[in-house]
Amino acid sequence: MNGVNKTLYIPLYGKAYVSKRGIFLDDKKAEEIWDAEGFALKGKSKSKWLAYYMGIRSAVFDNWLKQQIADTEDAVIIHIGCGMDSRVLRVGTMNHKWYDVDFSEVIEERKRYYFESADYQMIAGDVRDSNWLASVPEKKSAVVVMEGVSMYLTSEELHGLTTSLCAHFEQVAFLMDCYTVLAAKMSKYKNPINDVGVTDVYGIDNPELFQHGEFVYVKEHTMTPQKYIDELSGVEKYIFGKLYAGSFSKKLYRLFEYGKY
Question: Residue 10 pairs with which residues in a beta bridge?
């Protein structure tokens, strides 16, 4: 796999780590894949603090998605940049059609552990163009999550992606996490993704700049809700709360919701 694709092992490790500890996520599939593959992470990539962050981030995405699915009966679910994530198993399709999308080599690897069904399909494609949407026949409503992907896309590529989604669907609910511009600059020197050979990333400071037409900025979500921090204890809870949550974290990392209604 190329550098960007290799970054999928970082959140996979994090989810397997917290699942084994019984906090934030119950993710037996992540545990299974990590134990089987055992990709050799090093340095900051294997930090327990990063693992906690990855676990909480995924739980926040999961909870938002569960609510959206419950509120939108006829929506299709699209997970962009799915990697080896078991979100479809953690959340469940709830009788919705679910599409997991990633590069062809990632999907090829993914099919060793996941199996398609009437409600679930994997799509090989590059989200920087709209060709993959031809594999989605539904047109009415989509709930889209894009976790750990936006920082690898330029502003033009992000705009192109959301424009394509809005052209394809009548309604769109969209959630993505983003680096700030400061975090993108710092990432050239201090970021776990450097450990798998990635240095080029992009940041967003003003979420309203990505509005266009009927696609509007809805609100910002908290990346590290207190209820998850409270699952830690003692010194770990204190350190995580000070260094990875709150105002300091917000200077580097944001979570934005958009929609077309």
Answer: none
The pTM of this model reads 0.91
Residue 1 predicted with pLDDT over 90: no
Cβ–Cβ under 8 Å, residues 241 and 229? yes
pLDDT given at position 185: 84
Domain coordinates in residue numbering, the chain:
3-260
Q: Which CATH number fits domain 3-260: 2.40.160.210, 3.40.109.10, 3.40.50.150, 3.10.180.10?
A: 3.40.50.150
pLDDT tens sequence across 174-201: 999 999 999 888 876 654 444 444 457 8
Share of the chain above pLDDT 90, in %: 75
- Single-letter amino acid, residue 161: L
177 neighbors 223 (Cβ within 8 angstroms): yes
